Every structure is written in C-alpha cells, then in structure tokens.
Amino acid sequence: MSKLNPLNYMPATLSQSRDSRQTIHLPTERETSSIPRGDTEANWEYPSPQQMYNAMLRKGYDATPEDAVESMVAVHNFLNEGAWAEIVDWERRFSRGLGFGWQACRKGEEGWIEDADRIASPRDVAAPKLLRFQGRPKEMTPKARILDFMGRMYPAKF
C-alpha cells in the first residue's frame, strides 16, 4: 500500500487502472474544482469515475453498480461545490468577528442577501482556501448527537 497524502488522506498515487472484475469502461479524466488549495495556487481535483470505483472496491463496497459510478462522481462534485459555496459565504459573514457576523445575519437570509455587499464586501475578506480534506465517517457531528439523543428521549417525534 502506498503512503497516504496528508492533505487528503488518500493514497499518494490513485490508480486509474481498470479492475479485473470490471465489465464497463469508466472515464479516467479528472475535473478541477473551484476550491482553491491551501498549499499551492492551484485548485483541488475531483477523482475520476475510475478512481472513485477503485476506491469503493478498496473500501469493500464491491456491490456498487459500475454504470452508476459516473453519476455518483457528478453528485459528489456537485455537493462539494455547494458545501464550498456555503463555507465562502460563512467566511464572508463572520471573518470580521462575531459581532459583525451577527449584524450581517440579524435580518435573516433575505436581509443578508440584500445587504451582503454593503455589510461585507468580497474585497474586504480574504478568500478562504482548503488546506486539507479529512473524512471522519465514524464520528457523529454535534447535530447528529443531538438528534440521536432526542430520538432516544422522544422516539415518536424523532
């Protein structure tokens, strides 16, 4: 097994090779994301469908339909781009402090949209960059912990 890249916790060299059990061809082209890397001036790259399929096999998900992998990669990329847009918006609101962020949010989402340029100009805030990815699939988020607790306390409602 190759060493893991500390920036994304993935093998340093991701295989683009076709698996021996594979029956259809999967593209090996990677798409560049809009997410800037923290270690270079480049943007992060999304995995190719072949790399995604190989990773799923490596993790034991061998019942994955090969013809669904391209759609899975498209959804993966779409969700990452949406999450990054939320992070950029959050940084724009709160990068100048909680008091400033509260002022920006006190009118609700519609008020923020109306006043965004006046309250927090994009040129006033350094654009965030993503230094590393770190998946923690076995760790519950605070929200998941709360919902788990509420589900145990009030199973009929949650």
Using brief descriptors, characterize the structure shown:
two-stranded antiparallel sheet; 158 residues; globular; 5 helices
Set out the fold topology.
Elements: E1 4-5, E2 10-11, E3 32-36, E4 43-45, H1 49-58, H2 69-94, H3 98-105, H4 108-119, H5 142-153
Antiparallel strand pairs: 1-2, 3-4
Task: Describe the model.
By secondary structure, the protein is mainly alpha-helical. It contains five helices and four strands, in the order ββββααααα. A two-stranded antiparallel ribbon has the order 1-2. Helix 1 packs across helix 2 (69-94) and helix 3 (98-105) packs across helix 4 (108-119). The longest helix is centred in the middle third of the chain and has 26 residues, at 69-94. The mean pLDDT is 85.
Question: How is the main sheet built?
Answer: 2 strands, antiparallel
Low-confidence sequence ranges: none
Order of helices and strands: EEEEHHHHH
Indicate the radius of gyration in whole angstroms. 20 Å
Order of strands across the main sheet:
1-2
Secondary-structure content class? mainly alpha
The N- and C-terminal alpha carbons lie at a distance of 43 Å
- Beta-strand content: 5-15%
What percentage of residues falls in helices of 4 or more residues?
A: 40-55%
Number of E strands: 4
Query: Helical element count?
Result: 5
Shape: globular
> What do the pLDDT scores average to?
85
